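Sequence, please.
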């Protein structure tokens, strides 16, 4: 959690910090730095392939293999190899040209899914789900900070009732961001808690409700059933709830994230993604594979622990950072 966000601080001053004119530039630096492990691995592989060998079928096959190693996905890797091996590239291509082509193709895949989270009604109810350790609670805190900086009235719901630490963590975020919070003792029924929270939010003029949930492995049927129950009970209060179901994905898990998107999507009706920990892996390409397969909106990505290290997803910036272009 970011120590710069202090309890009891001036909200307008905090909003100014969040919207500082230098934020775009500093975010690009954080994004580029965070994806350095991915871009370095890709850049080195591409350079090694193309500076020592001519462009032929074997080189293209090896390039395809390197793209798959970076978790960009086999279908995407095959398309890239096909693009590079055809047309004007038949006579050869430099490593720099390959990076530019790769960035362009990544942008084509990511542009349709780069969508902001549209707060279209009030209260706008967001259910946040994911496996253990994906960063759900921290992500909720960062989102609360973002919405509070925009002047919205925010309620946090400590629905991870299995972990006392998660409840305490969310209480700290509520204090730091000026959000209200609904919490119960550890072990309380999370569906009942969500019911009470939405009921309260409707009477208190809350703009955004962020509901935390317990981390659960996608292959644990009983836990996924519980998530389904939370959604079902929410709809007894608000038939359209939740208005958004955000799945928080940890980039470091690589290919396992594909399974998470598929199963959470079937159980909870995932409407959008948040990708965290892109700074901790050389497998940042997994977001491309996910977008290519599922076409789900990617609302935010995270490249660090600070409150400013979660930002709206932009396809061009991501594509260029992944391949190491300035």
């Amino acid at each position: 959690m970011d120590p710069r966000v202090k309890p009891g601080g001036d909200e307008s001053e905090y909003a100014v910090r969040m919207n500082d004119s230098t934020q775009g530039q500093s975010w690009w630096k954080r994004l580029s730095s965070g994806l350095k492990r991915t871009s370095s691995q890709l850049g080195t592989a591409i350079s090694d392939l193309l500076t020592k060998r001519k462009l032929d079928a074997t080189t293209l096959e090896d390039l395809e293999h390197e793209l798959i190693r970076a978790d960009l996905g086999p279908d995407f890797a095959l398309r890239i190899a096909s693009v590079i091996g055809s047309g004007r590239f038949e006579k050869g291509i430099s490593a720099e040209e390959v990076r530019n082509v790769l960035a362009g193709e990544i942008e084509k895949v990511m542009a349709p899914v780069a969508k902001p989270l549209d707060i279209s009604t009030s209260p706008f109810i967001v259910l946040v789900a994911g496996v253990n350790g994906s960063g759900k609670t921290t992500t909720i805190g960062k989102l609360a900070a973002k919405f509070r900086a925009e002047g919205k009235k925010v309620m946090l719901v400590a629905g991870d009732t299995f972990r006392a630490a998660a409840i305490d963590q969310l209480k700290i975020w509520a204090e730091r961001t000026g959000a209200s919070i609904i919490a119960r003792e550890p072990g309380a029924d999370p569906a009942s808690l969500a019911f009470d929270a939405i009921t309260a939010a409707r009477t208190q003029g809350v703009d955004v409700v962020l509901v935390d949930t317990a981390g659960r492995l996608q292959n644990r049927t009983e836990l996924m059933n519980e998530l389904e129950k939370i959604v079902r009970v929410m709809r007894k209060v608000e038939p359209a709830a939740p208005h958004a179901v955000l799945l928080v994905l940890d980039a470091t898990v690589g290919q396992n994230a594909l399974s998470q998107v598929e199963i959470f999507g079937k159980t909870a009706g995932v409407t959008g993604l948040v990708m965290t920990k892109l700074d901790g892996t050389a497998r940042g390409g997994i977001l491309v594979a996910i977008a290519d397969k599922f076409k789900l909106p990617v609302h935010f990505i995270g490249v660090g622990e600070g409150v400013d290290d979660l930002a709206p997803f932009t396809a061009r910036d991501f594509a260029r950072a992944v391949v190491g272009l300035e």
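The chain has two domains: 34-112, 115-313.
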